């Protein structure tokens, strides 16, 4: 792909302020590159083109610009550019935690807020002390580089400290939130044979305290490799008798010690993230110290322009890769704001209120939260002091056009909406924005620096202006080192490189526009293919998002056993709304006029809820398989679903149920 950055046919909804452009770090980086190479890149498009055509030049510039510390001067950047199997900075040793803790600033490094409003602030010096104490304790228990340390923990400072302590000695971290039952956590952790478990007594959600002591005991029993357990008092509950052998958090973290960092080879494992596990055992995805260091410095320091002391607040849980990115904001000296609880308790404006109270420069939410805020009639820009807010981030699903306009009108015209596409697979972004890129409603502004993203048709040809497969044609440092328990790399190659050999296929439909932006249309295995015309589900959602009475929608295109094709639209109504002929007519007209006349749904059906993965993605493919006749217990692991009853509800629309079941024909 050659990204031209030609003018857009439509007017952007947001354009960079010249004063901001001149002062941002990506402009500083562009000048830094010009001094090194003798070439001045006049705009973002030119800088991106250089960043993917000269991988050694770009990534060595990122290394030097952010002053990456290593045991020796860096040598070669990469051994070769073929995928998979690229080795980055061979012969170099680094440590992620060393960089996360090297800031020496006044104020807080971490602000942790619980749902009940209680708050804990941790200074940089106190964070280093706690990390040093926990790291010393781990060493005393015989934990060494390569050992696995896991956390069954909510999103509090304890998880950050336990992770950084593990990373500081070269141990490998993995975490799971306590909304998972013990069996769900065990499905992930047993694969890793961990030697230490950090586990909390519970968490708060939606106004209730959830006691997880029994689940923690069950999890301990399911992990025979454990040598030690640390109990973390999030709720302050009494210790269970079975926990008498567990170490107390106060004891483990209470020592006086500066952390000592074990520098490990660049491609040593840092953490293991897991796939959703929707249809089988979750895959353990292993990322390395060095690759994460470079990718996250670039993403947070250049694309998001985070500065030392600025507040970074992205709503997440420890289950999701965004937690890892939040922690990485420490790399650039930012203060991270953690929130553990429901985003809509005690009111739908909770995240806006927190962003205002803590003067966040960046707030990250889901598309669903923006839709919910609009439906609830929230006016963040007038109700709260959001004068510090510079960026409103969104990821987890495609962001349709309407929320961009809502943010402009109800949050503020100066706030840049940054929609990001990436994934757990690379724990980073394929595309997003920068302070120097315009924003168009419903579009992702630009491919990320150093990411050779493209759109390919079935024959492997690059296409612009039409839907294709999202591919990455050159390696990224944060691509997985490997999958856990995949010794010959077969599962890894099958996951990403089976369609286009040597090229990463991510599994999303994407359109590259003539003005350099990207439009993600949904998963390519959930495409709507009617009469040979393909359409992404996000196009349908975008068409009907602004209609009154609709809380959430799910559209499916299902090839049926009898050779037919059924495309129903399932909707969750707002309280008091009714699916009458008028709403059905409005939906059909919206899809026909704003998306495609060939993709007007066959049926429009009200359902009580839409099922999602634990990270908030609509479960389009499992529902499609149910509509095609698969048993609900075969399409998804209950532990991977936020509401398994919502998924099971769709079994009434399976082929053997439709004949005598509810009316689901056209109209």
Explain what the structure shows:
Helix 2 packs across helix 4 (55-65). The protein starts with 17 loop residues before the first helix and ends in a 9-residue tail after the last helix. The chain has 667 residues and is of the alpha/beta class. 30% of the residues lie in helices and 21% in strands. Strands 3-2-15-14-16-17-18 form a seven-stranded mixed sheet, sandwiched between helices. It is globular.
List descriptors:
667 residues, alpha/beta, seven-stranded mixed sheet, five-stranded parallel sheet, 23 helices, 33 strands, 21% strand, globular, disordered C terminus
Q: What structural class results from the helix and strand content? A: alpha/beta
User: What's the total count of β strands?
Assistant: 33
| Number of helical elements | 23
Chain-averaged pLDDT: 91
Low-confidence stretches: 2-9, 659-667
Tell me the major beta sheet: 7 strands, mixed
| Termini separation | 42 Å
> What is the gyration radius calculated from CA atoms?
24 Å
Describe the protein's topology:
Elements: H1 18-23, H2 25-37, H3 44-53, H4 55-65, E1 93-94, H5 96-100, E2 108-114, E3 119-123, H6 124-140, E4 148-152, H7 157-168, E5 172-176, H8 182-189, E6 196-200, E7 202-205, E8 208-211, H9 213-222, E9 228-232, E10 247-248, H10 249-253, E11 264-265, E12 269-274, E13 284-288, H11 289-303, E14 311-314, H12 321-328, E15 335-340, H13 350-357, E16 360-365, H14 367-375, H15 380-383, E17 391-394, H16 401-410, E18 416-419, E19 421-423, E20 428-432, E21 446-447, E22 453-456, E23 468-472, E24 482-483, H17 490-496, E25 504-512, E26 518-523, E27 528-530, E28 533-535, H18 537-544, E29 550-555, E30 558-559, E31 565-566, E32 568-573, H19 581-594, E33 603-606, H20 620-627, H21 632-635, H22 644-648, H23 655-658
Helix pairs in contact: 2-4, 3-4, 6-7, 8-9, 18-19
